[in-house]
């Protein structure tokens, strides 16, 4: 992949860009194997590769510059860098960015100046559905001061971009490097972006987490479905379930599935998908995954965990050892915390593992690991 910004030393987000892609995959596989060298692994599956460009379905743009000449991209020590031509984004993003720049002036949304702590517009967050190309656009604002101006200007933008399906404003008043705040204000009646992976309907609300590489995410979910189907389990927990991607892929009409996620918005999306599919033995609830698991009485045959980068932690590992489900399926975006958790899961053996390259040109990757309780 060629990137003019990388060549000009203006952006180094893709720190492995000059490394041949096959070598990138091998480096990641070697890293994963080194982390797990103290554990016996029955089946190492080959890494799942990714498209090398235009694979991202989401852009997180810092807004800087002036209201008349905004810059969408990142901030560097020597000033802002425009990333609207970043080759990681699909071609469909470029005309959207081109219209958002004059729209910022129309709406009078002064870019936030970090040093002076002045201005209103901090970030633009743009997501695209791989199902139909519809878009979700979020304006991250310092306050609600310019909210009515934003509302008044939106009809022009919606006329120019009919693919805009969901628009909202997030209020982030804290003068710190925090992407978004707790308050989300709907600017369109519809607040659901419809997605579909492997013929499984999924729904994304403004504050719901969703993978940024839908091509690799589809293969990750499908792999989990295949592995779970081979186990023929009748009951399953999906902890840290998000909008339900894993559980909805793995569940069958006969399976008892419980999905737990702390975000009520994500749970609402998962419930909608389950109803659409017609899964009747499914329960999704907005709870803390660790508290739910350590307080629940019934023991499922399989527990699937998909935690944030910190991993599942000592408390949940200890409880899983005691609870003793037959199988654990661990999906991780941080293999280092996963390795720490597996060391704590002393009663479990690694049966199968596979790396998924969700983030080409970087050191990051996802990994799916199947563990079985030792007899």
From TrEMBL:
EC number of the protein: 2.1.1.189
One Pfam match: tRNA_U5-meth_tr
Residues holding S-adenosyl-L-methionine: 211, 240, 261, 306
BP terms from Gene Ontology: rRNA base methylation
Binding site for [4Fe-4S] cluster: 3, 11, 14, 86
Alphabetically ordered keywords of this record: 4Fe-4S, Iron, Iron-sulfur, Metal-binding, Methyltransferase, rRNA processing, S-adenosyl-L-methionine, Transferase
Keyword Methyltransferase: yes
Top enzyme category: transferase
Presence of keyword Transferase: yes
Reaction(s) catalysed (UniProt annotation): uridine(747) in 23S rRNA + S-adenosyl-L-methionine = 5-methyluridine(747) in 23S rRNA + S-adenosyl-L-homocysteine + H(+)
Coiled-coil boundaries: none
Active site: 333
Domain of life where this protein originates: Bacteria
InterPro entries linked to this entry: 23SrRNA_MeTrfase_RlmC (IPR011825), MeTrfase_TrmA_AS (IPR030390), MeTrfase_TrmA_CS (IPR030391), SAM-dependent_MTases_sf (IPR029063), U5_MeTrfase_fam (IPR010280)
GO molecular function: 4 iron, 4 sulfur cluster binding; iron ion binding; rRNA (uridine-C5-)-methyltransferase activity
HAMAP family, sorted: 23SrRNA_methyltr_RlmC
Role: Catalyzes the formation of 5-methyl-uridine at position 747 (m5U747) in 23S rRNA.
Family named by the database record: Belongs to the class I-like SAM-binding methyltransferase superfamily. RNA M5U methyltransferase family. RlmC subfamily.
Protein name: 23S rRNA (uracil(747)-C(5))-methyltransferase RlmC
Originating organism: Pantoea alhagi
Gene of this entry: rumB
């Amino acid at each position: 992949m060629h990137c003019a910004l990388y060549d000009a030393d203006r952006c180094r987000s893709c720190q492995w860009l000059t490394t041949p892609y096959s070598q990138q995959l091998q480096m990641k596989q070697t890293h994963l194997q080194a982390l797990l060298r103290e554990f016996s692994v029955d089946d190492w599956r080959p890494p799942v590769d990714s498209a090398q460009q235009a694979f991202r379905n989401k852009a997180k743009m810092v807004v800087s510059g002036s209201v008349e000449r905004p810059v969408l991209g990142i901030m560097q020590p020597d000033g802002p860098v425009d990333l609207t031509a970043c080759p990681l984004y699909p071609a469909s993003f470029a005309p959207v960015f081109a219209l958002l720049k004059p729209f910022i002036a129309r709406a009078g949304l002064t870019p936030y100046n970090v040093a002076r702590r002045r201005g209103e517009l901090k970030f633009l967050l743009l997501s695209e559905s791989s199902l139909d190309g519809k878009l979700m656009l979020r304006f991250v604002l310092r306050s609600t001061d310019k909210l009515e101006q934003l509302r008044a200007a939106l009809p022009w933008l919606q006329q120019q971009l009919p693919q805009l399906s969901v628009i909202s404003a997030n209020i982030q008043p804290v003068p710190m490097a925090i992407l978004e705040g707790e308050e989300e204000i709907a600017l369109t009646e519809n607040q659901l972006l419809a997605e579909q992976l492997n013929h499984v309907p999924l729904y994304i609300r403004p504050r719901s987490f969703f993978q940024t590489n839908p091509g690799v995410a589809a293969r990750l979910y499908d792999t989990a479905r295949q592995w779970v189907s081979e186990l023929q389990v009748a009951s399953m927990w999906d902890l840290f379930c998000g909008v339900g991607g894993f559980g909805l892929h793995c569940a069958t009409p006969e399976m008892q599935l419980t999905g737990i996620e702390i975000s009520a918005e994500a749970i609402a999306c998962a419930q909608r998908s389950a109803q659409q599919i017609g899964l009747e033995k499914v329960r999704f609830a907005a709870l803390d995954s660790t508290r739910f698991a350590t307080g629940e009485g019934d023991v499922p045959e399989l527990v699937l965990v998909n935690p944030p980068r910190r991993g599942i932690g000592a408390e949940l590992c200890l409880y899983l050892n005691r609870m003793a489900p037959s199988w654990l399926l661990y999906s991780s975006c941080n293999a280092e915390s996963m390795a720490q958790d597996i060391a704590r899961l002393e009663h479990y053996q690694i049966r199968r593992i596979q790396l998924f390259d969700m983030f080409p040109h970087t050191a990051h990757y996802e990994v799916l690991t199947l563990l079985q309780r030792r007899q």
